[in-house]
Amino acid sequence: MNPKVSVIIPAYNTEVYIARAIESALEQTLTDIEIIIVDDGSSDQTVEVAKSFTDQRLKVIVNQQNLGVSVARNRALRAAQGEWVAVLDSDDWYAPERLEKLVLLAEETNADMIADDLYLIKDGATSPWSTLVQESGEHLDQIIQIDIVYFVETDVYGQAGLHLGLSKPIFKREFLVNHGIEYDENIRMGQDFWLDMKCLIKGSRFFLEPKPYYFYRSRPGSLVHQSKLSRLNQCCIATNSFMQQEVVKKNPALMRALSYHLAVSKKNLAYFQVLVPIKQGKWLTALTEMSKKPGFFSDFISRFYNILDRRIQYYVMGNKSVFDMSYNIHIKRKTTN
Fold first, then answer.
1. Which residues contact 196 (CB under 8 A, 6 or more apart)?
2. CA distances, 189 to each of 70, 142, 202, 229, 254 (Å)
């Protein structure tokens, strides 16, 4: 008999973290599960740590080279046999009751996918500093259904909102298989957002449980702390591609939401195409980019208050998280490699 849930864990150089992720899956109150780890060409001891667990529900697959988190996740998806598929990043972990709670709620609501709130925890901290819903400013006290327009409208770069592209829904595997839905292997950042979009455009019933059961770790080694330019460029390409679909063109509200999403991403990309070279000391590149973008100075001035506030918080108030998720939740599109 197939398991109730397949937990898929893509991993890359997370030897320090992966044991906790695996333990949190093995210790679920819902025991009818399988755990599929796909190591994506790690150069550390990630594979050895994963294989040190002897539980028969655990399977380890190894990519001989680093192919990207979407490839790793798709390999796990194809191996999964569960009624539901749950994603767990190898540096995050679950609360013990997470899968039992979400599966029960999914069955009660006839959901195709259901997400919970996320605990936000900084690497090395002993307790979360907030949750995704709390940071959004939304006041949710009961489960709600999420439609595709609302999903896009509340996940715009640099703006307040739920940012459910960060969430980790569980998916009905039959829905994914019937619609041929997998992760886009050309996208290395923000894969969760676009998988959710693929599901929603196919009519997925998506619900949000406002209670948090997922612990989402922020750490310096993940791609979220790397290039804003790559992240924004991929977002622009993916958004534009999605807008070319006929089913999207026939939905005016969705087209407006995606058009705004794209415009904001392009504006931020133009800004960082100047700012990043300045920070790197590449003055000629910065000046060249600045000459192409006459709106840079007005954009910089509009951001100046927030820039100043962050520095006061960090250097004067001692808030060491100011450059982390608490002030940058809108740009965190985390991957495991």
1. 113, 151, 164, 165, 167, 169, 206
2. 9, 30, 22, 11, 22
Token pair recorded at residue 199: 């599901």
pLDDT at 337 over 50: no
Please tell me the chain's helix, strand, coil percentages from 3-state DSSP, rounded to the nearest 5.
45, 15, 35
pLDDT tens for each residue of 70-108: 999 999 999 999 999 999 999 999 999 999 999 999 999
In 3D, which of 88, 287, 82, 93 has the Cα closest to residue 176? 82
Compute CA 303 distance to the chain's CA centroid, rounded to the nearest angstrom: 25
- CA distances (Å), 120 to each of 36, 109, 128, 203, 214, in order? 24, 27, 5, 30, 9
Question: What's the length of the chain?
Answer: 337
Burial of 314 (0-12, 13-18, 19+ CB in 10 A): middle
Give me the residues paired with residue 36 across strands: 8, 59
Return the biggest CA–CA distance within the chain: 64
Tokens at 296, concatenated: 């840079």
Cβ-count burial 15-24 (b if 16+ within 10 Å, e if not)? bebbbbbbeb
Can you read off the two tokens belonging to residue 77?
Answer: 């998806």
Residues 231-258: tens digit of each pLDDT: 889 999 999 999 999 999 999 999 999 9
Core vs surface per residue 116-130: b (16+ CB within 10 A) or e: bbbbbbbeeeeebbb
Task: Name the helix (H) or strand (E) containing 40.
Answer: strand 33-40
Within the chain, residue ranges assigned H as helices are 18-26, 46-51, 69-79, 98-109, 132-136, 148-153, 173-178, 191-201, 228-243, 246-249, 252-279, 283-292, 296-311, 325-328
In this prediction the pTM is 0.87
Task: List, in order, residues 6 or more apart from 282 with CB less than 8 Å away.
Answer: none
* Of 197, 303, 283, residue with least CA distance to 241: 197
Measured CA to CA, the distance from residue 86 to residue 72 in angstroms comes to: 14
